[in-house]
Write a sequence for this structure.
């Protein structure tokens, strides 16, 4: 079988109380299906910034240094990006191979991917940290250039499969985009759908960030195609 590879952008160790229980290590991979107007992590999709390519075993060697912290606190790995679900085949192989570590696995995701990516990882993930952006379909599209229906259908599917207790919904207020009441409106809509776990936050002022260019948006399919074919 072809060996799976992960295009790694960064590893952040010894995180506490930011995602999931215990001490966690965030593993950020390249590739994102969205193009948010003020992207928080452009290196995840910028083709000019190379990633480090790791096999399943090579990644394990890099993160096992914190095994004792993970075991003693109930922590483990948090999959981040970009969009880590694009690499679900890699992560599935990793989690199957290292299941006996008893580490927890959390994922930060926009859910803007095809359903099979989600199905790959549902048996392994302890907590889903979902990047909501906005629950108004027009505002969602306006901000992300993404497919609201795909996000929404995946969110409801996930709730049905794993229960809303495992889903933390991150709702941002984004300066220069959101009006003050919009995050509240998104939360109300989600509460009506039966969700109870929210993380409301304000983006760090994106004044100095450049909005994503039209060229970057046009390159999305090319870059995603490359991510899919190489890894
Ligand atoms: S989801 Fe949006 S903010 Fe996050 S990496 Fe993708 S484009 Fe950037």
């Amino acid at each position: 079988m072809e060996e799976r590879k992960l295009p790694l952008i960064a590893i952040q160790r010894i995180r506490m109380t930011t995602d999931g229980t215990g001490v966690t290590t965030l593993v950020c991979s390249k590739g994102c299906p969205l193009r948010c107007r003020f992207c928080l992590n452009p290196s995840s999709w910028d083709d000019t910034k190379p990633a480090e390519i790791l096999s399943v075993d090579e990644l394990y060697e890099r993160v096992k240094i914190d095994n004792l912290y993970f075991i003693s606190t109930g922590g483990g790995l948090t999959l981040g990006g970009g969009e880590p679900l694009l690499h679900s085949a890699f992560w599935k192989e990793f989690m199957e191979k290292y299941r006996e570590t008893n580490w927890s696995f959390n994922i930060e995701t926009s859910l803007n991917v095809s359903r099979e990516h989600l199905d790959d990882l549902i048996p392994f993930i302890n907590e889903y940290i979902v990047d909501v952006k906005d629950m108004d379909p027009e505002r969602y599209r306006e901000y992300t250039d993404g497919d609201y229906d795909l996000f929404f259908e995946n969110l409801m599917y996930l709730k049905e499969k794993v229960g809303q207790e495992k889903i933390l919904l991150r709702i941002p207020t984004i300066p220069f985009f959101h009006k003050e009441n919009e995050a509240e409106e998104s939360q109300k809509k989600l509460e009506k759908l039966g969700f109870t776990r929210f993380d409301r936050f304000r983006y760090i002022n994106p004044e100095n960030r450049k909005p994503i260019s039209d060229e970057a948006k046009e390159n999305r399919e090319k870059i995603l195609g490359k991510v899919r074919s190489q890894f």
In short: The radius of gyration is 17 Å. DSSP finds nine helices and eight strands in the chain.
